[in-house]
Amino acid sequence: MTLRIGTRGSELALWQARRVAELLAARPDAPPVELVRIRTEGDARADIPLWKVGGQAFFTREIDRAVLSGEVDAAVHSLKDLGTVLDEGLGLAAVLEREDPRDALLVRDGVGAAGLAELPESARVGTSSLRRRAFLARARGDLQLLELRGNVPTRIERLAAARFEAIVLAAAGVKRLGLERHITAFLPCREFTPAVSQGAIGVVCRQNDVETARWISALDHAPTRIETLAERALLRRVEGGCQVPLGAVGRLRGGRLTLFACVCAGDGSESIAAEGMLELGAQMPDTARERAVRLGEQIAEELLAKGAGRIIVQQRAPAGVEPP
């Protein structure tokens, strides 16, 4: 048996797929792994800002379909790209240990800024994320927020070419590619709440493929699974997507799960936050997972009660999404 793993072809996606292959290879009697590169809609439409794209699964749909058709046995995704409801017949077999969930600010050499507050007035900041745009606008209304697509090395090259004074990227991707030296500052989670599941890797396989699921599920990292279950339950309840400036981050430490979430208007003029805590202690895994989901749903309900639904509806309206 050869385990065929579907992946996007970007450097970061390949790093993630190779990490899964490496973890599998470390297990006794593990089958050989073959990586299969699959081009997604997100790769093909690199000229379109992500915040203009309707729907979800922009970077995952084609790979998941390849799993369902039997072309590959499993798919490796950045978990933040994966919809909260999977296609029928698919299951999230493993969530790997999370890297740093924060966003990172990368400032061009010569600008002389040690952080966001020190950037020059009207500085050009590149990002492809509506969520990051909203939080940047909330923090610094004078900044010019410009579109930035491409893989991580390409974005850093565009920064060095003086197209921007700074860019914002997920810290996890920068670290995984060994490019941490370019990070100027890490943005705190309360001021720049990360995307749901940012920094986590998810592996999907067919639910009826018992053999593949057996190998993949052995890679599951229980604390990361608990954290991301809470975050994804929250996202599913508020029906957010890449077009909605919503962030959520769960932390499981010493048996205590905390969850913080924030919805921000696209122009940064208004934000609504909610948080909660849960003592899990040494509960059985199934019970802990169920309670984590309930916490996510509870915090989602609190956000909606405070008016988050109104912000989301406004943001999804054509007039509510302004071009950069």
Please explain how this structure is put together.
By secondary structure, the protein is of the alpha/beta class. Helices cover 33% and strands 23% of the residues. The chain contains ten helices and 13 strands. It has helices spanning 11-25, 41-44, 61-69, 130-139, 152-160, 171-176, 210-217, 222-238, 285-305, 308-316, and strands spanning 3-7, 33-37, 74-78, 90-95, 103-107, 124-127, 144-147, 166-170, 185-187, 201-206, 246-253, 256-264, 271-279. Helix 8 (222-238) packs parallel to helix 9 (285-305). The longest helix has 21 residues, at 285-305. The radius of gyration is 19 Å and the shape is globular. Residues 318-324 have low confidence and may be disordered.
The H/E string reads EHEHHEEEEHEHEHEEHHEEEHH
Total individual domains? 3
Radius of gyration: 19 Å
Helix content: 25-40%
Describe the protein's topology.
Blueprint: E1 3-7, H1 11-25, E2 33-37, H2 41-44, H3 61-69, E3 74-78, E4 90-95, E5 103-107, E6 124-127, H4 130-139, E7 144-147, H5 152-160, E8 166-170, H6 171-176, E9 185-187, E10 201-206, H7 210-217, H8 222-238, E11 246-253, E12 256-264, E13 271-279, H9 285-305, H10 308-316
Parallel strand pairs: 1-2, 1-3, 6-7, 6-8
Antiparallel strand pairs: 3-10, 4-10, 5-8, 5-9, 11-12, 12-13
